[in-house]
Amino acid sequence: QVQLVESGGGSVQAGGSLRLSCAVSGHTHTIYWMAWFRQAPGKEREGVAAIFTPDRSAHYADSVKGRFTISQDTADNTLYLQMNSLKPEDTAMYYCVAEPGLLPRPLADNYRYWGQGTQVTVSS
């Protein structure tokens, strides 16, 4: 089992920045992929950034490429999402996710473990 707890959400004006954190506990040594997903009201859940933990290679959705950065700190088992140049369309609930298996499509919704989410609201 893996437990995920997000923090760092909030309200910010367009153009601002936020950093989301995800505390990871449990059988962390089994995790191959970690990612951040988001879901806005009335919209489908979207994978925005994923990281392959063995080599820390990252994948990004086109909608956030160049603005968001995913990273991990293995010393304290924390996943981060640095979000810069935020736009109103980034408003959503953001979820930290983890998967013990290998994923051919790391931004697809195939993750086994999910956190409770943290709300991000960007005003224009």
Kindly state the percentage of residues in helix. Answer: under 10%
Q: What is the H-and-E element order?
A: EEEEEEEEEEE
> What fraction of the residues are assigned to beta strands by DSSP?
over 45%
Shape: globular
Q: Helix count?
A: 0
Largest sheet: 7 strands, mixed
Based on secondary structure, the structural category is mainly beta
Give the end-to-end Cα distance, rounded to a whole number of Å: 40 Å
Write down how many β-strands occur, each being a DSSP E stretch of 2 or more residues.
11
Tell me the radius of gyration: 13 Å
Low-confidence stretches: none
Average pLDDT level: 95
Structure description:
The protein is mainly beta and 124 residues long. Helix content is 0%, strand content 52%. The strands form two sheets. Strands 2, 4, 5, 6, 9, 10 and 11 form a seven-stranded mixed beta sheet that branches. A four-stranded antiparallel beta sheet has the order 1-3-8-7, with no helix packed on it. The N and C termini lie far apart (40 Å). 31% of the residues are buried.
